[in-house]
Amino acid sequence: MISLVSICSPEFMNVPPLGILYVGDALKKAGYEVRVSHFTPDEIPRQAEIISRGKPLFVGISAFTSNQTRFGARFSRLFRERCESPVVWGGVHASMGPEQTLGEEYVDIVVIGEGEETAVDLARTLESGVSLGGVTGIGFKDNGEPVFNEPRPLIENLDRYRLDWDLVDIENYLTPAWGRKRVINFITSRGCPFKCGFCYNQRFNRRRWRSHSREFVISEIQELKGRYGIDGIKFYDDNFFANKKRAVEILKAVDLPWEGQLRIGYITGELAETLDETLCQGICFGFESGSDRILELIRKDQTTEDIIRGTAALAKYPAIRVTGCFILGNPTETREEVRKTIDFCLKLLEIHPKMSFSLGAFLPFPGVPLYDLLVDEGFVAPERTEDWEVINRMNDEMELPWLSWVTKEERENFVRAGRYAKLLQLRYLKIPVINKIPVWRLSSYNFRFPLELPALEWIHRTYSDEGSPLSKIMRKTVALTRSRSRVRHS
């Protein structure tokens, strides 16, 4: 038996562990019994006990650079105390920082890159008892010394593997959204051909985009519709529209509401209309900055004019929820450029009044193209794998040592700017004063004494929860207020 583990914060437990569902499928096809365990940090002691009692051939831990590294370290130590089976780390963090990961006393082997074929090769080698030196795509310890084998080629035919939903209880991952009840997360491709300096893809996927065939994706989704009654999809592809023709053909064939991530440079008037026709419910764009200098520095291959042009095209289809994501505190960024980004958000809001925004600090992930510049500018990497938990967008205390001008107060301003940016949708409420506060705070870059912030966030949460009785009352009240307002001004 082989045990595959993913440990997530409670708020992410409705997102299936897609990576290890693929790895589990490969191992099952090779004849192995596989158990997938997906649990929260409070379950670590109990799960370590349960999994160790099964004496697996190996336990595989998938971790992204965030608090998952701390969760994985804690589990690995407890498992090691109870069982001698090899502890194998894989996923993005182990692949981007394999030397440090393998250097931990609780890690025996690291899988670097895609795990499907490597896991099968590793399992067979461990069973046979021969040296791990012939397993490409791994690092291991030989008499305590780290050894890294040759990298494994990327998988060319992704249709050989699929998400094996039999490894988990799929009901845990069918969630409500957009008025639907059984929306699932899904992935159809890997990688991205672009070269963004903050992204893992250049190293992990070697700046290549590969996909399941159109026929394979349509078949898999139709099976999910028939077998589990799914009524919507959230695509987790890094670049679903890398092949626009393929993406549109899939969307038209499956005929389900959907959301996903796109590049704003892809958007034309024709594509915007197609997104609307294919039941698109929401799109998330990585706008990243309102400064063209920063966009060039981070190698985004887009300009502020591209962003404005795409946003204007989408404004004609207000039923599509558009979210623009921005990064504050990029390497070498100035205070003026941060202000420029915030002003740019407000400019986009004038173009598309129903846009929403996400502002977060730059995250110095190990191994990304800009990493060396970050180090040159003052970033010091965490000394232990588990300490990478600080690299987390939810971490309000994260420092930005690569920018000498960012004081503790300025870092707090970044956090508050992000919180107020989420509240820009309060403009819809048409409630005097309240609906103007977020715009005023952001436009003046004044975040001192934000006493009203918790109350505004409560109003936003309540109004956004379309299912709550209070939200329904608020919506009716606001609708009535708007109606009376129109009558008074007519």
How does this model look, in words?
The chain has 490 residues and is an alpha/beta fold. It has two domains: 2-148, Response regulator (Rossmann fold, 3-Layer(aba) Sandwich), CATH 3.40.50; 158-452, tm_1862 like domain (pyruvate-formate lyase- activating enzyme). The chain contains 18 helices and 16 strands. It has helices at 18-29, 44-53, 67-82, 92-96, 98-103, 116-128, 201-204, 214-228, 244-254, 269-277, 292-297, 304-314, 335-351, 371-376, 408-422, 437-444, 453-464, 469-489, and strands spanning 2-7, 34-39, 59-62, 87-90, 109-111, 138-142, 145-148, 175-177, 180-186, 189-191, 209-211, 232-235, 258-262, 280-288, 321-328, 356-361. The strands form three sheets. The chain has a seven-stranded mixed beta sheet with strand order 2-1-3-4-5-6-7, with helices on both faces. Strands 8-9-12-13-14-15-16 form a seven-stranded mixed beta sheet. A two-stranded antiparallel ribbon has the order 10-11. Helix 10 (269-277) links the parallel strand 13 (258-262) and strand 14. Helix 8 packs parallel to helix 9 (244-254). The chain is globular. The relative contact order is 0.08. The model is unreliable at 479-490 (pLDDT under 50).
